[in-house]
Every structure is written in structure tokens, then in C-alpha cells.
Amino acid sequence: MHPGINFFIKHAGSIFRNLFQVALKDINQLPETKHLFDICPGMESFVTLKFDDMVWALMESAAANTHLAIEPYYSCLDPNLPNFRPPEHDTDEEDEEIDLNESIMSKLASMFRKTLDDTVTKQLLRDRGRERASEKRKFLAEKRASMINEDETDEIIKSAFQYLLSLHEFIETILNFQTNYSLYNAFKEELESFSRVVSDSDWTEMLPQDDSLDAMIDNLDDKINGLKGSLDSVNKMQMKF
What we know:
Elements: H1 2-28, H2 31-39, H3 43-75, H4 92-113, H5 118-134, H6 150-192, H7 194-199, H8 212-240
Helix pairs in contact: 1-3, 3-6
């Protein structure tokens, strides 16, 4: 589970990065921005580095949130999983529950078609909450043989298989929500503030540090001072003549 989620998030991050490279190539086609990149050779790599840092932090946050969201569901067993229906529940009780759900939905639909009454709506949702809280699902029937037999073994296998299918569907729904929220929505929010992050950065990072420049500047200052001294000597000689 974890390697698959990490691979998917990294794949989404690579897509973001490729789209950014395409955007940079488009920007380089504009005369005004192309001239800016020409006079500042390190700007493109500087902006790309800032974008990579932003995407990497986004992927780390998305991975942590996604793992945290789904870990309880594959670490524990709970027959009250919303979409889980054990084989022994495929009877008239399930039909009654479906009829009850349909009647509640029809009541809600009729309420929204008419004048909405907050009191009735709250009461209906409150009653539905009580009904769901009182529902009891179980992996196996309460009445079982003293020694497990072949029929009960088949029932356990069917219940476990049905639970895994339900759990897979439920986790897939959670992953869809987490991906949209922690990855795509977060990326759009980060992208809106990305230009400000770049503009507020220390632009001196674009300039490569060259230790020999200090010595060259000192040497140039000495030559300038020597020329000034020679010029002063020439001016003094002219004044004597």
C-alpha cells in the first residue's frame, strides 16, 4: 500500500515538473522575457530550483496525509464498514434496510421540493443517525457449531473476501478525496503564491561565488591608486614649470 501511494504521488510530481518546463519554454519565446533570461543566465535554473523545492514539500505533505488517512482502515477490522454486507445479510433484512434507505431519501427529496423546514430536516437526520448507530453487522452468525465445520469455513472465506472487496472500494474513495485535496488543490494554492515566494527570495543565490574576485578587485584598486599618484606627480611637475 505505502510504496504504491508514494509512486503515485511522485508520478504526479513529475507531471507538475514537466508542465513547469513547458511553461518555461513558452516564456522563453516572448521577447521581453527572453531578453531577461539572456542577461541573467542563472535565473531559469534559480526559478526551477525554487519550483522543485515547492513540489517536493508538497509531495511530502500529501504522502504523509494520505498514509495517515487510510492507515486505520487496513490496520483494523470493523464489520461496520459502510459498504460491507456480509453474505448472511443478503436476506430479507437487507431488503428492509434498502427500503428504509429509499424511504428516507424519498422523504428528503420531497422536503427539498417543498418548503424546507429546518426542524423536520434535523429530526429526520437525527432519526437516521440513531438507526445507523443501532445497526449491528457481524462477520459470522451468532449461532455457530461447537466445532467449526466446512459450511462455517466457507462462510468465513466468503465474508473475508467480501470484506476485502468492500475495503478496497472504500479506500479507493478515500484516496480519490485525499488526492484531490492534498495534491491537486494544494498544488493550485501553492502555485498562486509561488511568484511571491520567488520574488521574496535571496537573488544573490543566482551569482556563483568566486573567491578570486576579491583579489582582482584589490589589484585593480592598487592600479587605480598608482595611476592617481602618477597623475598627481605630473600635475606638480607642470606647476613648477
